[in-house]
Design a protein that fits this description.
It is built from three helices and four strands. The protein has helices at residues 23-30, 57-71, 74-82, and strands at residues 2-3, 14-17, 35-36, 47-50.
Length: 84
């Protein structure tokens, strides 16, 4: 979920995405200025990621792939692993 203009009390651009088990707490602990507990879906382990300031695109790509793998079917994950 992308919130380019912010959402609720977060007035900065950010996204919410699914995360593998344990990733939410690890990411928030590693950089609480970048990662946060999003409303509504945080209780399901999702992570909030700030997109303002300098964004590490490699790290963001890893987070997005992990998010996809967290919710995709086994068939779609297999397609991802084998490539086009």
């Amino acid at each position: 979920m992308l919130w380019i203009d912010g959402h609720h009390d977060h007035s900065f651009p950010h996204l919410w995405c699914a995360a593998p088990e344990g990733a939410q707490s690890a990411l928030i602990a590693s950089d609480p200025a970048r990662y946060f507990y999003p409303p509504y879906v945080g209780s399901r382990g999702w992570i909030g990621v700030r997109l303002d300031g300098q964004v590490d695109t490699e790290e963001l790509n890893e987070i997005l792939e992990d998010a996809y793998r967290s919710v995709a079917s086994k068939r779609l994950i297999a397609e991802l692993d084998t490539g086009p």
